[in-house]
Amino acid sequence: MEIENLTKEMRNYAIEHDKGKSPSQVAASWYGDDLTYSGSGKTIFIILPTSGCSWALGDSGGCTMCSYTSDTTLEPIADEDVIELFENHLNRHPYKEDYENGEKIAIKLFASGSFLNPHELSINCRDEILKIIANTKEISEIVVESRPEYIKEEIIDDIFEIIDDKLFEIAIGLETSNDNTRLNKINKGFTLKDFNDSVKLISKLNLEKGYNLKSKAYIFIKPILLNEKEAIDEAIESAAHCEKTGVSRISFCPATIHSKTLIERMWRNGSYKAPWIWSTIEVINTVRSNFKIPALLDTSGFGSRRGPYNCKKCNKDLKHEIIKSNLNQSIIDFDCECKSEWIGEVKHSNMNYSKTFIKHLPLY
Hints:
The protein has 364 residues and is of the alpha/beta class. The protein is built from 14 helices and eight strands. 42% of the residues lie in helices and 16% in strands. An eight-stranded mixed sheet has the order 1-2-3-4-5-6-7-8. α4 runs parallel beside α6 (123-134) and α10 packs parallel to α12 (277-290).
């Protein structure tokens, strides 16, 4: 497929120029307010150092918007180093004090790939990290990310042997319920059926084995070669599919343009721009008004040159409004004079639709 040739060329260019990072450079963490399954609470976010996403480093070349090869070591890492860095970052945050004050505490583990893939994070490393969390009474919810092919009954059985009755959520980058967009514009490499089967397995294990297991879908707002209206409609349709399939909750991820990706190349050539913030609000408000599934909206990159953007007057205020609304799942009620320009673009999207044909061109 031509999309794979393009993403592989971008991936190879990124690896050649980035050379990988040290484990301590990759590892990161932050702590803050978040919506847990028990309501508003606190979450510890930790990025684990890994050698990289197998999908991005394999023959596929990875996803068109993903810069995971720039966020990894590209070299094997000793398990003890990963575990030490995890503990160091875990102990940086005041979650114990907040727990004593009645806060619910969750932890989200990012591996710049699939937490459940033993070739990215070894079984020994995975289990040692989970044992530490299992023995940390303050943490009641664990969130990880994985592609569908690594979500297997035997892996989940092993995990619950360790964590017992703690809640365990597996987030899957569905991106869209449209197979054509996911395969040919995002280059995700799995079908809607693959995603549905993973969600069904999670539901089955909850029912048959009594696990406290949840599923989450990431939905990407505005892949390449979609105009503004199509991006809005497809994100809403994807949310409807997730609710129908039994997904526990969804998280909308509006496009942000990362370095050395195919989406960046198209942006530099004038063939792509990130969505309006108004478009993301249209999506989240519609979903919260019409569906019951809890929905979050990520605000990474909002108001920046490479991220969702409205105008200088409202970017910052809207970002804060969205963050607040994520905690109480409220409708966002806001107005600005730039909204009329967005309405005009959405109304006439088909006239402005990009006719750029994806062909093999020099990348830089």
